[in-house]
């Protein structure tokens, strides 16, 4: 049985694309999962583990006002982390995790509140919004289970976005072949 990380490496290798990871609650687990796959060096550029809130701003460019008003556990924070790591490390794709693994609530959010995000290639055909997606999760379990489920969820979201972009590009090429837009 293939793992989501192996699928990510296979898909990105086939496309000649790269990925970078911004992590908070997962503390490096996403990067470790990807780099456990043979051949990951062809697609994995690096990661930023921004566990402290101020590092999300300083290293990843997350808006300071957003962090001050909503804290680090927020969907826009995840989206900005993904975009920030993609830009900082110069990759085609950026993925991010932020949330509360426990044992205590954080930023007014209960344990198990998690946001994962993907920021990907943008093409003229699809506009600026294409390639980016954030998902909200409510996970159960202990700290370790929440963190591992987050890893699997962000990798699954990346696979979904790669497939979505590939399908969109194929539709655009088909439209061009059949007489334009």
Describe the overall structure.
The protein has a single domain (4-177), classed as CinA-like (Maf protein). Helix content is 46%, strand content 18%. It contains six helices and five strands. A five-stranded mixed sheet has the order 2-1-3-4-5, sandwiched between helices. Strand 1 (19-23), helix 2 and strand 2 form a beta-alpha-beta unit. Helix 1 packs parallel to helix 6 (143-177). The longest helix is centred in the C-terminal third of the chain and has 35 residues, at 143-177. The radius of gyration is 16 Å and the shape is globular. 40% of the residues are buried.
Mean pLDDT across residues: 90
CATH class category label: Alpha Beta
Task: Supply the number of helical segments.
Answer: 6
Catalogue the unreliable spans: 123-130, 171-178
Biggest β-sheet, characterized?
Answer: 5 strands, mixed
The rounded Rg comes to 16 Å
| Distance, first to last CA | 41 Å
Q: What is the name of the CATH superfamily?
A: CinA-like
Order of helices and strands: HEHEHHHEEEH
Strand order of the largest sheet: 2-1-3-4-5
CATH topology: Maf protein
Q: What percent strand?
A: 15-25%
Give the helix/strand layout.
Elements: H1 4-15, E1 19-23, H2 29-35, E2 44-49, H3 53-60, H4 64-70, H5 75-89, E3 93-99, E4 113-119, E5 132-138, H6 143-177
Parallel strand pairs: 1-2, 1-3
Antiparallel strand pairs: 3-4, 4-5
Helix pairs in contact: 1-6
């Amino acid at each position: 049985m293939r793992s989501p990380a192996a699928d990510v490496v296979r898909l990105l290798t086939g496309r000649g694309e790269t990925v970078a990871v911004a992590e908070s609650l997962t503390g490096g687990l996403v990067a470790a999962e990807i780099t456990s796959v043979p051949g990951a060096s062809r697609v994995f550029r690096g990661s930023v583990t921004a566990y402290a809130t101020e590092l999300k701003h300083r290293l990843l460019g997350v808006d300071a006002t957003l962090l001050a008003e909503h804290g680090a556990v927020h969907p826009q924070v995840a989206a900005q982390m993904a975009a920030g790591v993609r830009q900082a490390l110069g990759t085609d794709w950026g993925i991010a995790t932020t949330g509360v693994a426990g044992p205590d609530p954080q930023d007014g959010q209960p344990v198990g509140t998690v946001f994962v995000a993907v920021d990907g290639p943008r093409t003229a055909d699809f506009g600026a919004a294409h390639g980016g997606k954030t998902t909200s999760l409510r996970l159960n379990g202990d700290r370790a289970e929440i963190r591992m489920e987050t890893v699997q969820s962000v990798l699954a979201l990346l696979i979904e976005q790669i497939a979505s972009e590939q399908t969109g590009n194929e539709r655009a090429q088909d439209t061009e072949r059949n007489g334009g837009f």
